[in-house]
Specification:
With 140 residues, the chain is mainly alpha-helical. Helices cover 76% and strands 0% of the residues. Helix 2 runs antiparallel to helix 3.
Length: 140
């Protein structure tokens, strides 16, 4: 049980360290938006402000995560729970930022954005070991 908790903490730490490189990905996304979408000056300024505001919030969450990781008074279970909560807050914040960015775009720009810049992840319909002959998804 203790080894499993240690493994979970290690995985969460890896995820949190990957998220520290977020600003480089944000820069690429912002540059792609400006080059692919032909944003107006007003739209470009609004996109910059959205990234700036949300970047500050991401930095605050990263600082909270680091302080939780350094807190020696927490048990492993508490540490894991707090890290999961902060990482969920980061995912929620990222989804909120996406909504804000999409609200700035017109219909034509939104189509290009969803196709080239931020395409939808494919949905996983099923997985695992199963009888492929009887599986409706595998038959198609």
């Amino acid at each position: 049980m203790r080894a499993l908790l240690g493994l979970n903490i290690f995985i969460l730490l890896l995820c949190s360290y990957q998220s520290l490189g977020q600003s480089a990905a944000d820069e690429r996304k912002r540059a792609n938006m400006k080059s692919e979408l032909n944003l107006s000056t007003d739209q470009s300024n609004q996109v910059d402000s959205v990234f700036l505001v949300f970047n500050e919030e991401f930095e605050q969450l990263d600082q909270n995560l680091q302080s939780v990781q350094r807190d020696t008074s927490l048990t492993e279970e508490d540490l894991l729970l707090r890290m999961q909560v902060i990482n969920q807050e980061k995912r929620d914040l990222k989804a909120l930022r996406e909504l804000e960015l999409k609200n700035l775009l017109n219909k034509e720009q939104l189509v290009i954005y969803e196709e080239k810049i931020q395409p939808q992840k494919p949905q996983v319909l099923h997985f695992g070991i199963h009888n492929r002959a009887d599986c409706n998804v595998c038959k198609e």
